[in-house]
Design goal:
With 274 residues, this protein is mainly alpha-helical. 78% of the residues lie in helices and 0% in strands.
Amino acid sequence: MNLNAIQIILVILISFLAGMEGILDQFQFHQPVISCTLIGLVTGNLMPCLVLGGTLQMIALGWANVGAAVAPDAALAGVASAIILVLGGQGKAGIASAIAIAVPLAVAGLLLTILVRTISTMIVHIMDRVAAEGSFNKLDMWQWIDICLQGLRIAIPAALILAVGAGPVKAVLHAMPTWLTQGLSIGGGMVVAVGYAMVINMMATAEVWPFFAIGFVMATIKDLTLIGLGAIGVSMALIYLNLEASSSNNSGSTSSDGGSDNSGDPLGDVIDNY
């Protein structure tokens, strides 16, 4: 699929915002489910990109920065895979191939992350000197420069993929044998399962497991839509917060009377300790 000038500009703009949001983390543009959906919207490939974004989001759930270990760039993975999917013109059939190409690009994108963070360290020292001079305009300018560098970290690779064009991308995708695409599809499903298992492992507490089990069972009921499940989830969250608030109030009143920390409500005590 060939993109017109307006679509290319919008895709690069979305890529730029995704790179900025990787640091700002306010509007979640860097999340694959958001970036892929927006790119699909402006290019007329909403449904394939939405499925791609949801699949990548499940993979990215297991990506986390731990100490000095930097996780693959979820923003670059989402943007690059969406552009490759759109240029390939294969629709949902090209999702596995797009993920297979995008994930290595996300790992290679760590070099850009390291480069930008190194430059950011230099900018911080410049901002320290500017702050000592009391120049707030220069301070704001350098902050914007630093944030824009984060956006260029994703926008430049996206522009390079767009510059390659639909022809070479289609040629690479069609040259991939069937056994490779099927293997990548199976491997992608396994990566999704591993990422989700890592999230479950992090939230595996005695207080959270009952909510997970209830949601898992409700998700199997075919008559419940996502809106219905969302309403149930919000209701359960409000019940949880109300129980926690009442537990805290009971615990505070008991402690002020010189009594024990036991509020008399077992569930409230568990939530309060949690």
